[in-house]
Amino acid sequence: MFIEQLKDQIPDFAKDVRINLASMVADETFSPQSKYGLLLATAIATRNPAVTAAMESAAAEVLSPAALTAAKSAASVMAMNNVYYRFAHLASNPEYKRMPARLRMNVIANPGVDKADFELWSLAVSAINGCGACMDAHEKALQEAGVGSVAIQAAVRFAAIVQSVAVAIEAAGHGVAQAVK
């Protein structure tokens, strides 16, 4: 399933979502690797099988096997980190912030792709998962890598659009049933 087929699943009540998806696909802010890794990582973060299948199909035509793996790794490791660091950040007891996480996350240091791409994907996934501490950390790493505010904001905009596609499809009743076809 490709992105065009995914757009066809977006119901008329979510016309703005469909238009935003088309605009995002045409957006040239990012290199193809950055863009399609971003689409795949954020799709996985939505936990919507139809959206993930469409983005993975599109990404597989553009990304190297290493980049596909890295995008999946970003979504996976951020799923873990976002839960842990959101808890540590939001818990009233400050002791949790001082405790070692004791979570294996070596992929962040050695993602197999350009570090800035991995940080961009991690930031976008963290935005979907709502972890302010992780968003701050990845935004800082991106700025230190020379990525500007416009690109950082665009990555989060992409995450918002991909999330809205998942919600629109689920609201229309197309979620798992369509992904299985």
From TrEMBL:
Protein known as: Alkyl hydroperoxide reductase AhpD
GO terms classed as biological process: cell redox homeostasis; response to oxidative stress
Intrachain disulfide bonds: C131-C134
Protein's organism: Bradyrhizobium jicamae
Sorted UniProt keywords: Antioxidant, Disulfide bond, Oxidoreductase, Peroxidase, Redox-active center
GO MF term (any one): peroxiredoxin activity
Similarity comment: Belongs to the AhpD family.
Residue ranges constituting the Carboxymuconolactone decarboxylase-like domain according to the UniProt record: 94-171
